[in-house]
Amino acid sequence: MNSRADLASAGLTSLLGRDELLGSLAEMLHNDTRLITLTGPAGVGKTRLGVTLAQRADGAFDTTAVVYLADLDPSATAEAVAQFIVAALGITDHHSQRPALEVLVERLREQRGLIVLDNAEHLLDAATDVVMALLDEVAGLSIVVTSRHRLELVGERIVTVPPMSIPELTAAPEQARTSDAMALLLERATARGYPAIPENSTAWAALIELARWSGGLPLVIEQMAAQMGKGLSPDRILRRLDGGRLLAAAARRIQPHHRTLDLALGVSWGLCSPAQQRLWARLAVFSGGFDLEAAEEVCGGDEEVDTDEVMSLLTGLVQQSIVVISPDGRYTQLQPLREYGLRHLDQFGETRRLRERHCAWVQRLCADAAVHWLGPEELGWLARVYGELPNIRAAVAWCVAAGEVDAGMSIVTDVMRCRVPFFYALQATVCSWMEDLLRIEPDAQSPARLNALAAVGFVLTAIGDKTRGGRYRDQCLELAAKLDAGNSPPALYIDGTHRVLSLGDVDGLPLLQQARDGFRAAGMAGDGQMAALILAIGAGLLGPADIADESSDECLRDAEAHDSPWAITWALWTQGLPARTQRRYVLHECLRPQVEMGDRWGSTWTVEAGAWWRSASGQPKDAARLLGGCLGLQKRHGVGVGGLVPFQRQRKLAEERIVAAIGEVAFRHHYAEGTTLTAEQIYELALRPVEVPPDTRPDLTLDVLTGAEKRVAALVADGLNNPEIARALTVSRRTVETHLTRIFQKLRLNRRAQLATWYIQQTGYEAGQRRAAR
């Protein structure tokens, strides 16, 4: 209970990740801050921080004491609190009839003192009275209070103790180790005798999940480590962990008031009014946070919690550290508090109703984003949907569990439509949500399912997964035929995208034109812009030149008319594609804003296109590095260029140009070097000045060549060298060279790779297809 003995035994667990905060608190005390209140949820480490602060500041004070007020009965008076402090300080009063507060004032008046009052929330009024009296009477005294509720005194410095950092969802082993929660869990498990866990093992993955589940609460981590010390493996703990109930068993050395998680949270629950308790339970349906409007929409509007009451009730929960509010006005609950609330939501019999309301809120948010993203607020919509991904994930998971398939598919479809998966490189994650939903009722026939198949098929196709993308395209077209919706814009969109990107087939271009026009006629401007973009990309890479020019220019006009910043960068990107009659080098204009915006999909494609340009402009080494660097970006960003046939053709031509210029060995060396670059280094390389290559004259058609010249051009596009062409045509090498000279003069070209590019643009065939045709 009292200072010196407790200070000596305070370090039962390591205080990881708190050095900066401790330094800041020590600086406050050094600058004579009189009252500091450490707030935060149960188990976040307020006690540990307060004790350590007193421990480290001990030499700067004449008197230092840590007083564990949790040992007092909640009905204790201010006099009882003062008596407790007297005992903690080891004061012997020979005038036993005097009030304890008077004794304290007399003893401390001439000293520089520090008192830490721990767990003041359960007798807040009494503790506040004592603190106020001591600060008024003792000029040299500083008091640090740990409490889930602030004292609301003048001059009080409120310091919210944050949770420890937790590993990212997809953290590699070395990254996971850098999180404070993971480091503490490993240390405590080791201290309790648990053997070392190999990285990249199932147990290691489970350990990461435990660290994430803890929400960064040291109390919860200590309980997990205690279970491991009893022989439970991390994966068994995960399997048995149910709403925090596994954590009811306590470590022996934890202070009595932290003996169990339920007890700690039960104290907070008991401090809440019935309306606050009800709101706490209802707020638990949110995952990852919420704003006031969301809380009012989902949790208010009935006899228990009126909508107009939500704001004041939230304020009370913030004051008691049940809910944390960030500077931007967003509220959050840590996972253990959410789990506790969810158990009470079940007891109230409201789980189904609140889950339905939460799902409806998520569905409306995503639908609004899908409809309105094309415009000046585009980045705001992207950020908003991305910020609500935990809530979206929770809503979709509930739809899967509850069989609300159409609602879930509508949510995920709209997330895909507003392009959040591409911007933030979450394609695989969001596709897995959709696939979970699609598996539930595989034979169902509904417009929602058709839209879902089209959406997931598009995403998979766009990231280069032609097999799965093609499978969903086939299912979409089959369902569209059953629903008599074969000409619906979503069906046309996925069919055209698959043909253009997965097959390199120009027959997909008219389908994309129809999809674009159909979306716009239906008032779906954003979907129309995306169909226009894929049309411009397909025509720009495959030809013909007239469609490439028209579609690219129209796509840019539409993006600029809507003043939509990300859409503009993509439309600009199509202006530099090889099938256009007048290519514009705009990659720098695209890449800089894409990097600044945080666009992972667009920046990957732009780096790839930058490699093509450099290979044709006399910068073979940088081109090779960019090709290798783009491979690294694809892995980081979940973007697959290799599965896109038009991209395969351009990459092959780029590699041929590079090899012709510096040789195979040098190409492989610089390519490998590029794969080791960081994303920042890749972007820096891509933004270096580049010489714009001469026009490849795609406006000139095959008619300008003679029959023999066409045959030579076709074999050049097949990758044959002059001796091979001579053997194939049964002519001399000199004849081949003569034909090539005339072709270069007619087309105003100077490289074989440029000729190959032009020929592919004119014919639309891959090399293998041409061989088969001949």
Structure in words:
A 5-stranded parallel sheet has the order 2-3-4-1-5, sandwiched between helices. Strands 6-7 form a two-stranded antiparallel ribbon. Helix content is 63%, strand content 4%. The chain contains 40 helices and 7 strands. The termini are far apart. Strand 6 (324-325) and strand 7 (331-332) form a beta hairpin. Helix 23 packs parallel to helix 25 (489-503), helix 25 (489-503) runs antiparallel to helix 26 and helix 30 runs antiparallel to helix 31 (600-616).
Poorly predicted tracts of residues: 1-13, 248-260, 766-774
- Helix residue percentage: 55-70%
* Cα-atom radius of gyration: 33 Å
State the separation between the terminal residues, measured CA to CA: 93 Å
Question: Helical segment tally?
Answer: 40
Widest beta sheet: strand line-up: 2-3-4-1-5
Q: Residue-averaged pLDDT, rounded?
A: 85
Main sheet overview: 5 strands, parallel
Task: Give the total of beta strands.
Answer: 7
Task: Describe the structure in brief.
The model is unreliable at 1-13, 248-260 and 766-774 (pLDDT under 50).
Protein traits:
two-stranded antiparallel ribbon, single chain, mainly alpha, disordered C terminus, 4% strand, 774 residues
Map the helices and strands.
Blueprint lengths: L2 H6 L10 H12 L4 E5 L6 H12 L5 E6 L9 H12 L10 H9 L4 E6 L5 H14 L3 E6 L10 E4 L12 H5 L2 H12 L10 H12 L4 H12 L4 H7 L20 H11 L2 H10 L8 H8 L10 H10 L4 E2 L5 E2 L2 H14 L2 H22 L5 H10 L1 H14 L2 H13 L2 H4 L3 H12 L8 H16 L3 H17 L6 H15 L4 H14 L3 H18 L2 H17 L3 H10 L12 H11 L2 H17 L3 H18 L7 H18 L1 H12 L3 H8 L20 H11 L4 H8 L3 H15 L4 H12 L3 H7 L1
Parallel strand pairs: 1-4, 1-5, 2-3, 3-4
Antiparallel strand pairs: 6-7
Helix pairs in contact: 2-3, 4-5, 4-6, 8-10, 9-11, 13-15, 13-16, 14-17, 17-18, 17-19, 17-20, 19-20, 20-22, 20-23, 22-23, 23-24, 23-25, 24-25, 25-26, 25-27, 26-27, 27-28, 27-29, 28-29, 29-30, 30-31, 31-32, 31-33, 32-33, 32-34, 32-35, 33-34, 33-39, 36-38, 36-39, 37-38
